[in-house]
Amino acid sequence: MRPQREYHIVVLGAAQFVQNVWIESYDPTIEDSYRKQIEVDGRQCILEILDTAGTEQFTAMRELYMKQGQGFLLVFSITSMSSLNELSELREQITRIKDDEKVPLVIVGNKSDLEEDRAVPRARAFGLSQSWGNAPYYETSARRRANVNEVFVDLCRQIIRKDLQGSGGGDPSRKREGPNRHDRKRESRRQNSRRRPCVIL
Amino acid sequence: MKPHIPPLKIAKPTSNLSVSTSPDDTKYIPDRFYSAHGQSEITPPLTPQGARDIMEQTEAPRAVFHNYLRAFYPFHPAGDVSPSTVTLPLDQGDIILVHSVHTNGWADGTLLDSGNRGWLPTNYCEAYDQLPMRPLLKALTDFWDIIRGGCGSSLKDFGNQDLMRGPIAGVRFLLEKSECLTREAPLVRKYDGLRRIRKALLSDLSSLVKTAKRFQEVANGTPEEDEVEGILDEMLLKAFKIVTRGVRFLDVWNEEVGLSRTIVELEQPMSDNQSLYDMPPTPASETFTLAETAPYSDTTERNDSRQMSRSRMDFSRASMRTEMLDHQPRPVSVSTKRISVSHRVSYSGPSAAICAENLASERLGTTYDAFLGVLGSFIGLHMQSRSSTELVTTTQQAVQSCRSLLTVVEAVCEHDTQRSAFLEQARESMCEKLSELVHAARDVFRPAHLPDDDLVFMPDEGKRLVDAATDCVRAAGNCLAKARLVLEQIGDIELEPSENEAPSEDVPGLITPQPQPETIPNSTYSPSTPGLTDSTTPSSFHSHLTSHSPANLSALSSLPSSAIMPTHLEGTSFSSTDSANRISHTKSEMGESFGRGVTSTGSSFTYNSHTRDSEMSGVSQTSTRATSPDIGGSFQVPSLKESVSHSTLAEENEETEANILEKTYAHELIYKEGQVMGGSLRALIEKLTAHQSTPDAMFVSTFYLTFRLFATPVEFAEALAERFDYIGDTPHAAGPVRLRVYNVFKGWLESHWRHDRDNSALEFIVEFAKTRLATDLPTASKRILDLAEKVSAVHGPVVPRLVSSMGKTNTATAQYIHPDTPLPPAILAKKETNLLKQWKNGEASISILDFDPMELARQLTIKESRIFCSILPEELLDTEWTRKSGSLAVNVRAMSTLSTDLAHLVADSILCLEEPKKRAVTIKHWVKIANKCLELNNYDSLMAIICSLNSSMISRLKRTWDIVSQKTKVTLEHLRGIVDVSRNYAVLRQRLQNHVPPCLPFVGTYLTDLTFVDHGNQSLRNLPTDDGEMAVINFDKHMKTARIISELQRFQIPYRLTEVPELQTWMQNELVRVRSNGETTAQVFYRRSLVLEPREPSRTATNMQPEANTSILDNAKDKFDFLSWSNNSKAKSVATNG
Q1: Between chains, do B1011 and A54 touch, taking CB under 8 Å as contact?
Q2: Which residues lie in Basic residues bias regions (chain A) (predicted)?
Q3: Which end of chain A is more exposed for a tag (fewer CB within 10 A), N or C?
Q4: DSSP label at B109?
Q5: Which parts of A13-69 fold into alpha helices (H)?
Q6: Domain B834-1002+1054-1092 - what CATH class?
Q7: From the DSSP assignment, how many helices (H) and strands (E) are in chain B?
Q8: Which pTM was predicted?
Q9: Cβ-contact B504, B540 below 8 angstroms
Q10: ipTM value
Q11: Is A5-195 CATH 3.40.50.300?
């Protein structure tokens, strides 16, 4: 059995992305509220999630969070264009702090259950994700637990890949391989999973 | 003591066994059949022998799993029945709780009659699922599951009253459906059998409640495993008994009523139900009975009984109303008991069959109730500081009723001389307590002898009085319990009829015997005495019970003199007289003069208590009216309420009866582990104003804090008013509940009024106070109107609210510093003072290096603490602080702004310096300041400073960090460990957990938690009901919110530090200066950092390396390793060691 890996994930952004919504009652002090075990390509990973929800105004704090993270979820609400725009600054800060253009990150358009209130066209968000070195883009519904797990798996996969590259000397061309097809597949998967709530853990 | 119920502990067969149909299962069955020993208890025997059984077996596997079966055919397996018998012998009519049914038709069940568990043939039984019994059966199933399936960890939850709600509600439902809800229900009166079983059922129920109470006590102490098990078994058996009794009740009902109903129905298809509702609300029972029996059918039982119960409610409500009118205006304090007593009297008029009342047990109960009623008024009197006339009469009543109780006890004693030694003892102790009570009462009156004849109410004496009364109640409860025990042993005895006919009209009060001349003759009251003039008040009730026939006189005189001596009140002004008239005359005079004195002092007394702050006192006040204080729900404190309700519930069917009658929305609450998780607004309000128990402080605080999230202020007010109204149907609870409703309004207006939101409800509240409240509680109404006026005139809380009224209990642990202790002097020499002066005049520029780190930390703390302490709870609700525009959370916003400014100030002060050495010195200074912040428990500033020192723009200054001393780095490392964000701020949370204020916690964690609770929990919960589901308020979410807020409030205590205004001004100036860079501040700093120490070409590579190489094990360590200097090996070793 392969050893478990443990990764630090930081959730940033204006829209709260409560990944623990399926816990009947949230207690911040218990481990379950910030640790999560997932399986990525047959490998068990432990994720320690730092969700900064509620502290957006403590801008000086951000760096502390960012330094902590190995992978990032940049969350915006599909019902608010400004929440998407705010991500750029965050991403800029992350790359500056990590001194790395290819930090593992996923862009998450949350509240996909509020389709009727959508203010951010899917194409717009997708365009942004492409301009950021083809960062994956997901639309989720934390409330319906849709696509939440997929987001974490994708991010975790990126971190693992980066780990391997780091030890293997790096492969700058990896991001180039068929991103479009990749994302289209994701797009369709998203469509499906919106109907079925994903069961996590 | 432990009941004999061996098979109860048999492990429940696992489901796969019970459904197992494998061949192995069947092959050894034949020879095992009916054998008593050695067989696996979890495998059922084969089908019972006999052709008939086999034929019927086909229908045994049922599609629906029935929890309860009823034997319609006796089943007595051959051979003796030993405790380990696998099969369960059945008698016809037995009820069985089924745990599992085997496919071969055998069921694993528990016989409710005996509590024995074993296998039984289902084909001897039929499913038992009568509609009126359903809730009760379900309650038993739940009960079983909790006790047998539950784990020991949450033992405490079992004992609480909520667990008892199920059985109580079940019995209520049964009685309601069978139209036997009240004792005076026509059916109950008509059919003696029904009445008897009904009574037995209620007594079973009260016995269960009593055991539950005992369990609660045991569970709150340090229970021993055996003891707990024993009581649990006992409770289970009692619950079984209730169900068995309920089944029997229904049988009798069907026999007696159901049949005749059907016949009537056939003869007279329909009659006008409407007439029932239009009937005048006179409790003329005969006519009612006649009118009633006709229209009901059995065929449409469900509908009819619903109608029936409705009409029943109307009936009782209507009669209640007349009663209430009769009694207006009634004293607040005593209303609870008096109403309850009078209620009973008005129903069981003189024509009621009294034969049963001559039974010792019955009389024991009634006299005891009367005694409690009087003592209840005693407590009420004290709390309300009512007229002394009342006190006098109540004292007398107490003596009277106590005497009648003692009479019965005495009689019981006489019947059984052998075993009643302990009863004797209990009785004696009760006499003692009564004596103390009378003495206490007398002492209260002593000031009446003062020349000016002005009565000064002495609080100390009042307390003594209450204590004495409390003791009395306890002693009486004990006495009663002992007497009951004896009665149980020797069997019930019949006493001589106690009764002359009801008193004549002009002597409405107590007419009690005067067995000895020196006893205070109790006689009449002056007509002005409130609440006691009516013939339906307890006074008349007492006269019902109090024995004054010659026969009882002898019984009385046989009492030891100690029982009677204490009643001497001659010490007071009304010395013994033989003329009742004279006494009453004297007394009314006395009463008047006393009354005046007391009223004036009394009102100021109440005023004082009114102005006390916080809902804690508000709540306890309510409870003190009817009870004694039990703030905080401590079980050690002997509270009268507990003893009253304990002993009352323990032995009083009356109380159970009252419980049954109570209109309630309790079924609309969701519980989990004894906590309210959710409920409809009205159910929550009911819980908030429950009469049996003081709602816990957290529940109340949560309500005040969060109700606007689930109801508008108007809805809240209306729901409270509704509660005020419908509790009128439940006379015994109306008093305390109405007071609680009033207290909720009062607390709201006084300390929780939000002018921005609540003003819309003001009109309604005023209207309510003017009308309904004024009728019942005139003083309360006045108080509310006063408050409403103030609320509309004043902006801000009427009673200055301690910001944190919730968390304040915890602050009792705060370091106590005497207010006269001098503040620590500012560390500010002349030099610094001069510098500040020069700076003010624009003559010099100064930096943080000019000041002592401690002083800077102090001034920072003062500044920050001031904002923190002014955070209002409403700023923290509903993620108010994240609102983009128009956020009310000004103080929370100010906190984040200050924190950000401080971080920027740190960066600015370092980056403005050209020389690495100077930067290093400044870093060192900031580390010192941060360390001092930690000393002051100012985690918020600590966080900001460390954040800034760790930020990339500072941490990348390699040349600077190389100069920073190792000592400083070690300190910094230590500080960083404290504000570490990993594991969701585990370190920081741990530190704050039991932190003693003063302290400035990092606000961010609270904000995150609040956000998660708000977004991560639904606002509604689904509650399964009879017809589908109903969405109710997820109160748990609000409780969680309130709990986090109260955690924060716990720290809202200002520091005791000396403020240096000049330094504050300078700091403020600095902070504003760095803020002026606006949004781009961070980028500006970063660019400056790059200018100071340009990027090294190799940097990217070296930076990548450690992160990429991070092995799994190193990961945890490396997450601390983000300062550039820590990449050098020396620092790293420090990092890992620290």
Answers
A1: yes
A2: 191-201
A3: N
A4: E
A5: 62-68
A6: mainly alpha
A7: 49, 9
A8: 0.54
A9: no
A10: 0.82
A11: yes
3 state DSSP class of B500? coil
Instruction: Report CB contact under 8 Å: B1012, A58.
Output: no
Integer Cα distance of B795 and B1003 in angstroms: 28
By C-alpha distance, which of B70, B126, B61, B124 is closest to B96? Answer: B70
Say if residue B329 is preceded by a cis peptide, omega within 30 of 0: yes
Find, in chain A, the residue whose alpha carbon is nearest to that of B951.
Answer: A63
Dihedral pair phi/psi, residue A6, rounded to 5°: -125, 130
Q: Which of A34, A61, A142 sits opposite B983 (nearest CB)?
A: A34
Put the strands of the sheet holding A137-139 in their side by side order: A35-40, A43-51, A5-13, A71-77, A105-110, A137-139
Q: How many CA atoms lie within 13 A of A80 on its CB side?
A: 17
Structure tokens belonging to residue B845: 């520029």
Provide the edge-to-edge strand list for the sheet that holds B95-101: B117-121, B106-111, B95-101, B68-71, B125-127
**Contacts A25 to B, Cβ<8 Å:** 1017, 1036-1037, 1040
Q: Who among B881, B951, B983 is closest to A48 (CB)?
A: B983
Rounded Cα distance, B235 and B217, in Å: 14
Please state, as a whole number, how many other Cβ atoms lie within 10 Å of the Cβ of residue B896.
Answer: 23
Return the number of other C-beta atoms located less than 10 Å from residue A38's C-beta.
17
CA gyration radius, chain A: 16
Instruction: Output the CATH code of domain B612-801.
Output: 1.20.870.10
Q: How many CA atoms lie within 13 A of B711 on its CB side?
A: 23
- For CATH 1.20.870.10, the residue range(s) in chain B are 612-801
Flag whether residue B1116 sits within 8 Å of chain A, measured between CB atoms. Answer: yes
Second-level CATH architecture of B6-129: Roll (2.30)
| Cβ–Cβ < 8 Å for B847, B929 | no
Which positions in chain B touch A34 (Cβ < 8 Å)? 983-984
Q: pLDDT per residue over B125-172, tens digit each?
A: 888 877 788 888 888 887 777 776 554 445 555 545 566 777 887 888
Q: Where are the domains of chain A?
A: 5-195
The neighbouring-strand residues paired with A37 are A46
